[in-house]
Amino acid sequence: MTVNDALKAASSLIAPACEIRGANPARVAKALLMRHLDVKIEWIFLNLNRELEDADGYFALAKRFANHEPLEYITGEAGFYGLTFNVKKGVLIPRPETEILVERSLEVLSNLSTQNESPLIAEIGAGSGIISICLALNSKAKIIASDISDEALNLARQNAEKFGIEDRIEFVKCAYLDQIYGRFDLLVSNPPYIAQDYGLDKFVLNEPHEALFGGAKGDEILKNIILVAKNRGVKYLACEMGYDQKESMQNALKFNRFEAKFYKDLAGFDRGFVARNIFANF
Q1: Assigned domain for 257 exists
Q2: Mean pLDDT of the residues in the chain
């Protein structure tokens, strides 16, 4: 079987799953082949008529995708903020909309840098480490990041080492900031915020549920984070949230004495906020 024939067969095999994902079957088939052979896309175009080695191994990858395993878990990597991060099953896959949270956080750090050359940041729910790593790469901040998952923390440390900033970020296993001490200039989080009964596609359901669902209504963890930020005297709070949670967050932030600005994602949905603690000691 030639490379071209294998790509066509794999595209047909994964087409139904691609429809769920809104993905192009030919493009996914090529990505799987790049992973299988450890080659660049140019190699594929230059070798379409070449006999494919270990075709069974290639189709085993295609079957994993056809069974709704996310492509990022199969390839072991995901793009985020112009970088390529390691990912693995059991840890949430980075989303493009979270790049906006990084941008908003960097804007806060830009303002803080005039007051403090090395702002202190805490992140709740580090996951694969993408937010803390991007903030470290684009600022002089010192960062402490928490997560309750050993798998996530190990992956985050690997990613930090990959980009040479392992000495800039401390990863701690705990819920919220329970085992983390000190006062922070910025608390950032992309927490679980999906309501427990919200319908998700089969691909997303293959990701860790504890990183997706935020409770019965979905906003429970976000409300706890706001309370933590108030009690710890955090100056600024930046969070991603669900598209239908703006009113809930407005009320919680106002009650806890935060002034907030909300932002939308590229699809036009409410997606997050940056809030200032009006009683924090600046």
Answers
A1: yes
A2: 95
Indicate whether 242 pLDDT > 90.
Answer: yes
Statement to judge: residues 108 and 160 lie in one domain: yes
Pair (148, 241) in one structural domain: yes
Residues 56 and 117 in one domain: no
Name the domain boundary from 67, 86, 121. Answer: 67
pLDDT at 90: 95
Residue 235 lies in a domain: yes
The average pLDDT across 206-226 equals 95
Whole-model pTM? 0.94
Q: Which domain holds residue 119?
A: 98-277
Per-residue CA distances from 244 to 174, 200, 218 (Å): 28, 16, 10
